[in-house]
């Protein structure tokens, strides 16, 4: 949860700039010194894509006045207001809650509500609206501790609480008046079907009868050739047994106002949006448009990103599965490299701007000699470059395996400025480039190297979720429904420090979460690979 400050080359905790100017914080933070101008340029290029946007940057200009004895409580107040979660009653003041129909002990599956809603007297499994989860759980004693995120020079402990997720005693929608829609956007990710399934099942438990899927992402709201898909427990019963999305996904699509027009036409008053940063930006815009039109609509996101690049969360669903599935590719690369005479295996893994999959997969496999991620610059050539280390490895143990994230080393490639339909920059293929450069290097040296390149991207993304992701998907899907029924909108669900929370969307998407080169996890990865600094 951090970004690289391009101007000063220090690692800056992501949450801090909202409260303090970067200049104020600079001396407090562990300094990470790049060794060359070229490397500095690379840090800057990466930071351009990952740093907070200008609105957040201007918020950062509001420095904390540490001489104010009450700075800590002011910090907390501001934090609380930023992490407050929007509610229907913010704009629809006369919305009246009713007792929850989510009442596990009392309902039979066939019960309807003709005679009124069941009483909650015997069921106490609800979450209080005032329950909170602690966002940060480490008390750093010094800004020089690995991965330290400090607010002042003493690393003063300031509690930062966020809203706990789960079913509430009072709800703001009558189930028989709900038409719920689910949409899955962006790229595929293991677990999409699991989340869809849990949303449908939970909606039915509340008593909702009208549930539909919007086909092929936001596009499905506008494309007249695409029909919404009726969903029920029957339809989704075995959906989680296969990967992909039963609704289909897409990038790009209609404008926010066209989407809200379409929701009004369809009578959709609960929208569940599964997607990454871009999708959540869309979900927040839909939420704001609904507010502008004073619609009684709940928009709830479930973060889907295989890259794990959403701020604040322990992880996003599908990430564990991706790391697990990547082991197969890494093991194959290892076997190929190990069985060849002077063999080098290369595996390219996903991660547009964040190297989480590459880092975790390298650590898990124990078979990687060199892990390259976008956050950590490297040289290919020169005495400290990747190529010369490969030469050393071939001499020492006869083979080597490299794991590289797709967003790493982009400054070695020609920029095309091409964008996909969602406006994401289309990256050059660093895996192919690395393969060519390694071949060229060993040819130039006149010593052989047998290079095998594996790109398992789409094979990984398309698999079904593993058991741990299956559980995460189940909890997130259920909590999304609880949040909508509780009247919250413009929120997303997540796991923070092993507990489940609701977060306001803007806080989790202000920029992509990236690996902190000063974090313990990256240090562990380096310990495991034994790789040197390539700068
Ligand atoms: N800033 C934005 N505002 C509104 N919609 C957006 C925004 N960015 C992306 N979208 C829409 O969100 C969807 C998914 O975005 P994309 O970046 O492809 O995937 P992801 O959500 O996984 O990051 C696309 O339909 C795209 O048009
Ligand atoms: O080829 P596609 O479908 O555009 O997807 C490629 C991208 O999808 C990702 O898996 C991320 O997708 P999202 O942005 O949808 O989470 C990246 O790792 C990769 O760059
Ligand atoms: Mg995206």
Main beta-sheet strand count, sense and barrel state: 9 strands, mixed
Q: What is the residue-averaged pLDDT? A: 87
Tell me the number of strands: 17
Strand order of the largest sheet: 4-5-17-16-11-10-7-8-9
Helix count from the secondary structure assignment: 16
Distance between the termini: 24 Å
Tertiary shape: globular
- Give the cofactors and ligands: adenosine-5'-diphosphate, 1,6-di-O-phosphono-beta-D-fructofuranose, magnesium ion
What are the segments in which pLDDT stays under 50 over at least 5 consecutive residues? Answer: 1-61
- Give the radius of gyration: 25 Å
Considering DSSP H and I runs of 4 or more, what fraction of the residues is helical?
A: 25-40%
What percentage of amino acids are in beta strands? Answer: 5-15%
Which structural class should the secondary elements be placed in?
alpha/beta
């Amino acid at each position: 949860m951090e970004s690289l400050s391009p101007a000063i080359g220090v690692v800056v905790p992501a949450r801090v700039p909202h409260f303090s100017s970067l200049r104020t914080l600079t001396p407090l933070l562990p300094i990470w010194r790049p060794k060359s101008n070229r490397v500095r340029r690379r840090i800057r290029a990466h930071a351009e894509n990952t740093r907070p946007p200008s609105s957040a940057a201007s918020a950062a200009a509001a420095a904390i006045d540490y001489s104010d004895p009450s700075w800590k409580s002011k910090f907390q107040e501001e934090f609380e207001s930023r992490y407050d979660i929007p509610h229907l009653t913010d704009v629809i003041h006369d919305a009246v809650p009713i007792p929850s129909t989510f009442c596990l002990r009392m309902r039979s599956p066939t019960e309807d509500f003709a005679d009124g809603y069941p009483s909650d007297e015997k069921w106490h499994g609800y979450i209080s609206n005032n329950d909170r989860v602690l966002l940060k759980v480490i008390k750093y004693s010094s800004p020089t501790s690995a991965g330290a995120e400090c607010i002042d020079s003493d690393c003063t402990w300031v509690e930062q609480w966020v809203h706990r997720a789960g079913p509430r005693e009072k709800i703001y929608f009558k189930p028989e008046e709900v038409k719920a829609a689910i949409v899955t956007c962006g790229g595929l990710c293991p677990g999409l079907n699991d989340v869809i399934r849990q949303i449908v099942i939970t909606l039915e438990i509340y008593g909702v009868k009208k549930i539909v899927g919007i086909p092929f992402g936001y596009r499905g709201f506008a494309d007249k050739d695409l029909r919404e898909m009726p969903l029920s427990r029957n339809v989704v019963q075995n959906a989680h047994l296969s990967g992909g999305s039963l609704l289909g996904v897409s990038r790009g699509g209609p404008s926010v106002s066209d989407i809200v027009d379409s929701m009004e036409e369809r009578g959709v008053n609960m929208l569940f949006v599964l997607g990454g940063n871009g999708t959540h930006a869309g979900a927040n815009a839909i939420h704001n448009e609904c507010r502008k039109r004073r619609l009684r609509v709940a928009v709830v996101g479930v973060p889907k990103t295989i890259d794990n690049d959403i701020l604040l969360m322990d992880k996003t669903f599908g990430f564990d599965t991706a790391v697990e599935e990547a082991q197969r590719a890494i093991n194959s690369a290892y076997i190929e490299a190990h069985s060849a005479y002077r063999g080098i295996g290369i595996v390219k893994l996903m991660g547009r701007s964040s190297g989480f999959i590459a880092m975790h997969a390298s650590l898990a496999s124990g078979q990687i000699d060199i892990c390259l991620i976008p956050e950590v610059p490297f040289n290919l050539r020169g005495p400290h470059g990747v190529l010369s280390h490969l030469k050393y490895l071939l001499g020492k143990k006869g083979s080597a395996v490299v794991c590289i994230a797709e967003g790493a080393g982009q400054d070695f490639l020609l920029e095309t400025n091409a964008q996909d339909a969602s406006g994401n920059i289309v990256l050059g293929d660093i895996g192919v480039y690395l393969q060519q450069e390694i071949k060229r290097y060993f040819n130039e040296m006149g010593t052989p190297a047998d290079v095998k390149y594996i790109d398992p991207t789409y094979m990984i993304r398309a698999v079904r979720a593993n058991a741990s992701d299956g559980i995460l998907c189940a909890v997130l899907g259920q909590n999304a429904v609880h949040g909508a029924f509780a009247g919250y909108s413009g929120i997303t669900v997540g796991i923070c420090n092993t507990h489940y929370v609701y977060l306001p969307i803007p806080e989790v998407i202000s920029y992509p979460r990236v690996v902190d080169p000063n974090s313990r996890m990256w240090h562990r990865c380096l310990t495991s690979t034994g790789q040197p600094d390539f700068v």
